[in-house]
Amino acid sequence: MKCRKCGREAVINMRQHKLALCDAHFLEWVSEQTQRFIEKYEMFTPQERILVAVSGGKDSLSLWDVLLRLGYRADGLYIGLGIDGGVDYSSQSHVMCDKFLAGIQADLADRRSQTADPQLAPADSNWKPTLHMVDLAHVYGETIPQVAARTTRGRGKPCSVCGLVKRHVMNRVARDGGYDVLTTGHNLDDEVAVLLGNTLSWNAGYLLRQAPVLPADKPGLARKVKPFFRFYERETAAYALVRGIEYIYDECPFAEGSTSIAHKEILNQMEKDSPGVKLRFYLDFLRAREQGLFAQQAAHVELNACDKCGQPTSAPGRCAFCRLWEGKKTAEVGQASQV
Amino acid sequence: MKCRKCGREAVINMRQHKLALCDAHFLEWVSEQTQRFIEKYEMFTPQERILVAVSGGKDSLSLWDVLLRLGYRADGLYIGLGIDGGVDYSSQSHVMCDKFLAGIQADLADRRSQTADPQLAPADSNWKPTLHMVDLAHVYGETIPQVAARTTRGRGKPCSVCGLVKRHVMNRVARDGGYDVLTTGHNLDDEVAVLLGNTLSWNAGYLLRQAPVLPADKPGLARKVKPFFRFYERETAAYALVRGIEYIYDECPFAEGSTSIAHKEILNQMEKDSPGVKLRFYLDFLRAREQGLFAQQAAHVELNACDKCGQPTSAPGRCAFCRLWEGKKTAEVGQASQV
Question: What interface predicted TM-score (ipTM) does this complex get?
């Protein structure tokens, strides 16, 4: 298979685009496509400050890499969940994020010294990316497995608690750090698996909200965007590989046997028989919703500020996150340490 | 595995219902459930005249069997499509329908002579089921493969033409015969495969119309109902087997490689991992639509009577069916011969 652009040996063939590319042109293509998605879906501008939630995996580190190389002012946020799973999962993930940051800082400094390309330092030539770190055990006194075991929300699997905690911490760091936008590395496979789940149960609330861009719930809060939502998982993995980004290969130990993994397998089988079906499923969904397929739900949820942390919540007093820690001594809205 | 009702050896285990039943209790259960669905979804009443579209397959013959045993006045309609496919498909299908009719007529006569059960002859004790037969080659001058090959609508596969022709003929026979309701043997697997296809492409028009009961498009036309839409395919097959109904095992030769078969395989795999997912997917869809998930589409399609056949059509002059035969000499709206 030859690269469509230069005829060299291709490293990847994307059947849904009928496009094979060599290593250099694949990196370029990912970068160009990301920029195109950012503009098309009005995710953010070069003037805005961006927070990238990084897990140490291929998607989020690749996203951070692409955004920085495109000249965006993107800082990272790593949340230490305290998950071990026999593979020292959380510590290893953190190491990957640190390594990535050291590498990209050196890269960017090199490129800055070699070129006068203003895109590499759009607003402030002294700016360099940082990594925020919030360690749950340190800040809140418990790891994810611990808090899940203590509360009914955990019910054997900590995934629901983990999602709640991550959303809260991401919001808080984005707000406290004055970020305009919070980005996550969700790829198409992630999004389509969620869409399939929401569709199988015809969950109106979720179907109406699932989107590559979620506006800020309240003034002052960051909007949430997913610049990689049109890339297949194998493409983000290929990007990390070709770019030489080290990342943690293990899935979260708690993900095993999850519905979303089962849905991904189903969708991959469909994709094999019908290349592009995953992408069309998601894009057709966005198009149909845009064209008014779904009724505007009359039941508008009123959000108010949590008594304790101030984040938007539909609950009358404290938000679900703050209630999670009630009765538990914490270091109280701890500062995110910075690298 | 034991029958839940009597403890005898079960012939089927329905994981989605956590229900295993012996042969006798399974037959009883299918019958009771069918009656329940007919009432719950207001499909028809014992006073109405029913036309069952029969293909010679397990679903439609089982449906006809159940309806007759429940005491409904249900006649059959067999459409001779002229499909051979190396297995003499259409002729064999017709033979199965004839055989079934002979058998059930004898059965019903026996039961009538033995009991005074008025349900067996609800309106007229002399009534007995008949089978309408419309042979396309005879009535319209061409078989399905022939008309598909002649028209652009065929495009290699005659399935689209076949669907159009069958809908037209079913409507016509129902109208000419004064039937109140047209029933088809679609089972849950059929319905869910279609739903998955409509969902993957987010086809608003199809999503809004897919239902177990479709009201008559125009006064005087029969409504269309699917009394078996909640039974899994393996259940209708088991019913035919246990009841001793002979049916044609072959799929239509043109169905091979179809999208709906691919979707059925995907859904069966999901069902294996998560028993009941097919049923929930469909019922949740009906519930969500009932609860107003979808917007009422403003674009109401105005139907008018076809210039030639009088059936409702969105086209200004002749309907798609009549245009299909233009330039082709036909025996002109031939009479359905009756057995």
Answer: 0.86
